[in-house]
Amino acid sequence: MESEGLIRPTKTGTVLRVNKFRFFTYRKIQYIWYEKECEWVNPADLDSTAPFNTYKNAITDQTGLPEEEVIARRKCYKANTLALPLTPIITILFKEVLSPFYIFQAFSVALWYTDNYAYYASVIVIITVGSAGVACWSTRAQEKRIRTMVGDTIDVEVLRNGKRSIVDGAELVPSDIMILPSHNFVLPCDCLLMNGTVIVNEAMLTGESVPVTKASLREADECGPEIRLSSEHNRHTLFSGTTVLQTRNYKGQPVMVRVLRTGFSTLKGQLVRSILYPRPADQDALKDILIFVGVLGIIAIVGFIYTVIMMIRRAESAKHIIIRSLDIITIVVPPALPAAMSVGIINANNRLRKKKIFCTSPTTINVCGQINVSCFDKTGTLTEDGLDFNCLKAVRKNQEGKPEFTKEFEDLDPAKLAEDQANLNKSGWSIEEAVNSDEETQDFDNVQPTVLRPPPEQAVYHPENHEYSVIKQHPFNSALQRMSVIISTPSEHSAHEMIVFTKGSPEMIASLCVPDTIPKNYTDVVDEYAQRGFRLIAVASKNVHMNFARALKTPRNVMESELEFLGLIVMENRLKPVTLSVINELSVANIRCVMVTGDNLLTAMSVARECGIIRPTKKAYLITHSKTEKDPLGRAKLFIQESVSSFENDIDTDSEVRAFDKKISLQKSKYQMAIAGPTYNVITHEYPELVDRVTTMCDVYARMAPDQKAQLIGALQHIGAKVMMCGDGANDCAALKAAHAGISLSQAEASIAAPFTSNIPDIRCVPEVIKEGRCALVTSYSVSKYMAAYSLNEFLSVMLLYNDGTNISDGQFLYIDLVLITLVALFLGNTAASTKLSAIPPPSRLATSAFYFSVFGQLFLNIATQVPGYVLVRAQKWYIGNPEALDNTTTMIGTAVFFTSCCMYLGYAFIYSRGHPYRRSIFTNYYLCGIIFIIGCINMVMIFTNIPFLMDLMGFVNIPSYPMRIILLAISISGVFISLIYEHFFVERVIAVHFEKYLRDRRLRNGDPSLSPYERMLVEIGATPAWFEQEISISKSINNRKETVESHL
């Protein structure tokens, strides 16, 4: 782009004026070429990582951007809109018909028309056009749904050239100053809060309608130029698509924000892009399909060569040889294979919707059938959303003046507590929100105070005017693990007396308190409650003497230091009723359950024991690190200690679960590990060689930050695990999106944070999704085998008839492909998922030995069925050969071959509809059973009657011997019976279970590199944690040798 007045951002947070720049647009994002760095960069990425002080120092800007700079920035950043123009129908259709499926269909239809199979070809054209039309309609409907979700642009008020004006939200550019209305406003961009306080609903991002308080940049701590804007500053950031619930004005001034990111660079824009451009399909599955089609193609080539040689010997015309030879390819490689394989996914999605589980990415359903690791958030997912108050353990000084814990108080009656602990009381208090006014006092420079008043009966324990004014709040920050409020007790005598109250995790609050105020047994008490599964909130305070202005401007870290410890609030977080049964169900199915939470490690371990993630027959170990001690290599020292396992009577709820816990297998570990986020971070950065093994063995991850959750999901995927993540939405979005399958427990019908959303807020949806995933996966395999068997059966029929210079008639082709195959394949995937999860997972790939044993075994059984009938009819005295011209399709041998093969097609529906262990019985699929019964009756009518209409339509020639008709039917039924035994007993049991297990166990013992690292490591280190102890011993050994050498010097 070349023009006057162009700009582009720099890494320092400023803009550089240029005359031209090179750019390209990829997936809605514009990238600009930076010559010095030799890289293409999205300008919004530079703004998102600019020095934080660049934005903090600009909060006094009351002018805004000049109009010429707005124009220049718009050329660089483009319009602030999630523009999703509807793709023209002709374009959608063109893209659809260019797929290999439609190209092959076009080739087949052209060939059939050339071969005078006009009726059949016309029906296929109608079906193909209808299929393309449905695909186009689905694409257009998806585009409309996304556009509805995105919404239209809105008018906003901005400050430009020192003047306020109303503009379309699409005209916003980064660094614009936007003025927020007081409430109910959907943000059109990502922005930084310059002044005031804003309460927003971030349900669009998190899936939870929980109000979040945003603090202005004025409240940000001072920092150096090296600190850059990052996710740690999210408490100052308002995100596009979130709803402003309330703003607070100060001294009559509006609440202003500075635009940070616009368009598809916003957080909402990134979520929309993730829907528009989903993760690529599983390459292994695609590779398997290509291999499968390639194998069929090889068979087709063999038939092609046979046909050419045979017809050349007969001295047939070149045109006839080409048509007949190419026709073999259209028979062996079924054009409808991709469409038929999607039937199981469509039915599984419909069944999930009935269970109030909604899927925005149906292709993910098949992936769910391969899940072997399921990760869970704790609070709101495994346990109830709310916390129930259990007791209070306050602190008071003993006779020696040292702090000690009081007994447990199960209520908050101040009369039962020491007077100096009365401020912990919350029961019965009233709150009075401030009213905006242009006459606010200068004292309340940053926020109008919220007034708290105790109940009248407790007035004696509180200041003379019986009220507290909340001067300032430091919102909860997951990275800081705490929140604070500064309150004033206004009176004539204490205008400058204030109290800072801080609550947070016990570890964090203890680090902020004066050591002399913490009881000696603090750690023991905290650990005792945590091991019992209680949630602890530590509370501390300090008195400060300063005026309002100074209190508001003092950095947070100063106000939250040298605190006096007040006590512990003990909260109880109960398990949801279904949690234990679901965890047991998944465990018995050999699906590893992992807890990923932000809670204390001991609390997490307690809940993990209670819900069955920590199994009673396995030893449990905690991995910790030292903050002060280093090993000889300068790394933080690691420690491992044995913890308490769960109790068998509490977890093993029935005999099946008890048998599972006592069962020993090659891929089953004998111990479990637990680790906290800080320790996991140490291992990631200082012990990278241990990351894969720790990720394989750790089942409890505590104190995990949101980005660490996503990091863990990535680590599990790196070692080859198929990972499902289930969370309540809050702080889980990154992990939900990173997993192979994410389930959000949200009340919304659909969520863009995860491909699955359950309207029932507990984890019962997890086994349901996995069951349907396994059912859909196995159905796709079954349909593939069904389509392959049908094609090879038809291929064999054609090869036999080519030997006589004839072929299947147009009516027979139509009946086989449209009635026998299409209708049956349509309902083949309608069999519901099994009610129980099997301990043996389905094959993760199509190309297995069992699959090829099945396909090629059925081919040989087809030969053994059709050839005897073919030979037997030709040997009869009443047999009439092909007396007419070349390529006559109305022949007696053609009729006989059809009678023999038609029952085989129906038999395949039973053969490939086996229920156990991933699907229910075929007899529960009433539609399929009905279709098979009706078609079976039609077959009997065609075999045993000579109705003129049917004879003409199907191209039959009367077979004069009814006993021969019975013999042909008996041969066909015998073939079906033998095929059924071969498939269900030999292939499904001998090959798929025993032979595949033998091969897999041998590969595991030999450490076959083709297996995933996850499976290999389970075998290598699953017996004992000696590998971890050895790592610690090596560090100790190096340290001892170092000390020995130093002692001799």
TrEMBL record:
SUPFAM superfamilies: Calcium ATPase, transduction domain A, Calcium ATPase, transmembrane domain M, HAD-like. One of its GO terms (cellular component) is plasma membrane. It is a multi-pass membrane protein. It is found in: Membrane. It comes from the Eukaryota. InterPro entries: ATPase_P-typ_cyto_dom_N (IPR023299), ATPase_P-typ_P_site (IPR018303), ATPase_P-typ_TM_dom_sf (IPR023298), ATPase_P-typ_transduc_dom_A_sf (IPR008250), ATPase_P-type_domA (IPR059000), HAD-like_sf (IPR036412), HAD_sf (IPR023214), P-type_TPase_V (IPR006544). One of its GO terms (biological process) is intracellular calcium ion homeostasis. This is P-type ATPase A domain-containing protein. It comes from Caenorhabditis brenneri (Nematode worm). The lineage of its organism: Eukaryota, Metazoa, Ecdysozoa, Nematoda, Chromadorea.
